[in-house]
Amino acid sequence: xxxxxxxxxxxxxxxxxxxxxxxxxxxxxxxxxxxxxxxxxxxxxxxxxxxxxxxxxxxxxxxxxxxxxxxxxxxxxxxxxxxxxxxxxxxxxxxxxxxxxxxxxxxxxxxxxxxxxxxxxxxxxxxxxxxxxxxxxxxxxxxxxxxxxxxxxxxxxxxxxxxxxxxxxxxxxxxxxxxxxxxxxxxxxxxxxxxxxxxxxxxxxxxxxxxxxxxxxxxxxxxxxxxxxxxxxxx
Length: 235
Ligand code: CA
Hints:
This protein is α/β, with parallel strands linked by helices. The protein has two domains: 6-129, Response regulator (Rossmann fold, 3-Layer(aba) Sandwich); 133-234, Arc Repressor Mutant, subunit A (Orthogonal Bundle). Helix content is 41%, strand content 21%. The chain has a five-stranded parallel β-sheet with strand order 2-1-3-4-5, sandwiched between helices. A hairpin with a 3-residue loop joins β10 (217-220) and β11 (224-227). The longest helix has 15 residues, at 111-125. The two termini are 33 Å apart. Bound molecules: calcium ion (CA). Calcium ion binds next to loops.
């Protein structure tokens, strides 16, 4: 039921990009491919990936430049980035330089090893992606059993509200625009009006707030929504 983690593969060698896409999809990731540095920045802007696999030597903007610019953006500041480098040439520099990457893999690499490294990075940085149960504040979502609890009580949600909550709980405090929520919950190939999101957020809020319970969902004017239990508690 969990949304697949999305990986942005940035690789200018078409055959390698294809091979990576094939293997990552087989692992259950949702994969987008960019063939040069500028395209990578555009694709990441459209929708922030959960992880970036980034080649060092790229046309238009180098891997290091892409890494630096992704880090400068709010929405990809903490996104795990794994660099792919050619043996000998740049791996020492990657090792020695603080370029903001989380890990690096030297080409040629074994696909099994690369996938294991990506799983490790995912687990370390976003444990929620690998787990069936996520807790944020007093809210617990059990994705395997498809159940939600707040404190001692069970929360009954429709399937769309469940998916919205699941997505928000994977990234607590992160603000999602209506368009980003539409992509994540309904899929980018489905046409749904942005205000439909507001309707479902309204239902989700109503189900999550009973009696004196705080509102766990923060509305950020003209930006979108986030799950923010700390702020709710402080308010
Ligand atoms: Ca390259």
